[in-house]
Amino acid sequence: MTRFDLTRLPRVNAVLRNRWPQFLLRAITLAGFAFTILAGLFGSIVGSHNFAIIFVWIAWWTALKLFFIPFGGRSWCSICPIPMAGEWLQRGGMLEPSGKGMGLKKRWPRFLRGNWLQAFGFLMIGLFSAVTLTSAKITGIVLLAIILLSLVLSLIFERRPFCNYLCPIGGFTGLYAQAGPVEVRVKEAEVCAAHSEKLCYEACPWGQYPLALKSSANCGLCMECLRVCPKDNIVVNLRPWGSDLQAGTRHNMSEAFLGLVMLASALVDSAVFLGPWGGLKMAAYTIGSREWFVFAGIFLVSALGLLPGAYALCVSWTNRLGKKQRSLREALAQYSQTLVPLGLMAWIAFTVSFAFVKFTYVLPVISDPLGWGWNLLGLHQAAGVGQASPFSLFLQIVILAVGLFWTARVNRRISESWRQAAPMIVFSSLFSLAMLWLLVG
Amino acid sequence: MQPILAKIKAALSPRQFLWGAVFAAVAVLIMFMPLPQRQTAPMQRTIRIDASRFQFMPGEIQVNPGDKVTIELVSHDVVHGFSLDNYNFTLRAEPGQTASGTFIASQAGVFRFRCSITCGNLHPFMIGKLSVGTNWLLWRGIALIGLALAAAFFSLRPARSRIAQGSR
Fold this sequence. Notes:
The structure holds 2 protein chains of 2 kinds.
Chain A: E1 4-5, H1 10-17, H2 19-42, H3 51-72, H4 75-79, H5 84-91, H6 116-127, H7 129-132, H8 136-156, H9 161-166, H10 168-177, E2 182-186, H11 189-194, H12 199-203, H13 224-228, E3 234-238, H14 253-274, H15 278-285, H16 290-321, H17 328-334, H18 339-358, H19 362-367, H20 390-414, H21 418-440
Antiparallel strand pairs in A: 1-3, 2-3
Helix pairs in contact in A: 2-3, 2-8, 3-8, 3-18, 5-8, 6-10, 6-14, 14-16, 14-17, 14-18, 14-21, 15-16, 16-21, 18-20, 18-21, 20-21
Chain B: H1 4-11, H2 14-32, E1 44-52, E2 55-57, E3 60-63, E4 68-75, E5 80-84, E6 89-93, E7 98-104, E8 109-114, E9 127-132, H3 136-156, H4 160-167
Parallel strand pairs in B: 1-4, 3-9
Antiparallel strand pairs in B: 1-2, 4-7, 5-6, 5-8, 8-9
């Protein structure tokens, strides 16, 4: 398949190799992150008037799903401010390692590896989303807790333990980055194999060895390998979308679990935030009430029981239709890649319905970020109520259809025949129809 | 620079290009083909909607195209608003008061109505649904999803010439 190596462009190569541009971008995002925490803690309690709510859950969350992941894979991770402080202490330098870093540099426990904790974190976001996404103070507290946790973990464990194993957004971006059009790979495998000093592996904050990279799920595009490789043997490719999703690629059970949690969360968020069921919204919002426990029970049973059960049933059926002998566990892991385009496009469709309507809240909070009645840029006005235009509804349908088309193709490519792919195509179609009904029904 | 159409043509075989064009044409037809609405005599309808913290009761309303619809919005706690997507129709109800207004359901389809006055944390998601006639958009979506499956099947179906080569 065709690839275009971005490092062949001299200016792009210079920018990627230089640590300063990335550092400046991360400094800006860190300042924004700190301001968001302050706005959340001390700004208006009315979510729609507070920078923390509007910028985190509308502007950034939308940009992540509509721009960063579809066009840059894990590109957000390369400028994310959350691991910065811990990494500076760990490496003993803000721009590059000084060799005088702090920390115990312990290895992350083997039994906690994979995407399990990230999936659990995303599940928790879904469970408490009606409050987290609408209360500025809770958003501020959650962001503060995240950055402190990341800092503490960096002082105990080596590299980026929070990003690798805990960050729910890292799980989300990592899973869907497999469908993204950017990858870091080696130019010549023989050159790497013959080079005894693994400087790239030592420099990688994600603990990845570029020669072994077969998927972009765990590469945070930090470009450290590109900068330290003495053989100039690293490339940054633009590639066709979905290049990691094919037969022969390696996947694991935690990816399948993460993918299913994402599907369940997309369904639940669509129902709670976009549906006409007031009782459901109140149940999701009144944490601790009897109604909330019913909501939590249904959500958890769906995310941990019904959806994984249906998936396991379809994969098991698929497995029986194939000639190749493979355990159910292997098949569950292998077919997890079909959940990637399905989930990514469902989240994009959800976001389109959400972003088009709620974008009217963005400009007023730039003018009055804390909701204190300021009018810094002359843009402070009552936020319009927003409307779902016929265009956005059409767009959501097309996005869901493209998602199913893509998923069916991935299914067929990793199956021996259309017959074998059929059960998972049925699963994917039912999910797409459910999303369609929630978004335009 | 090569035009996009020429690039696509170069990347696909003539057969794939032909099927792609056919599927694209059918997709456009599914999405934009005019469809009839069931004709019923327009009625005068009065609908009372109770608005309280983050919910409209009832949250879903069904009317027929052409109906003259009067909404009576009753607020039970704080000030609530009512704004109907694609219809220039808004109401504002003070606590314990009723606000009413009338509109003609001239556009068919499903439309969300939203609270238009900030009423608390979940205000941006205080949403209800008005259905005017048949929701053809949902049926178009179902048809497009079926088409997506057919397109996936045809896009990966081995060409007859390759099958023949394989069997030799």
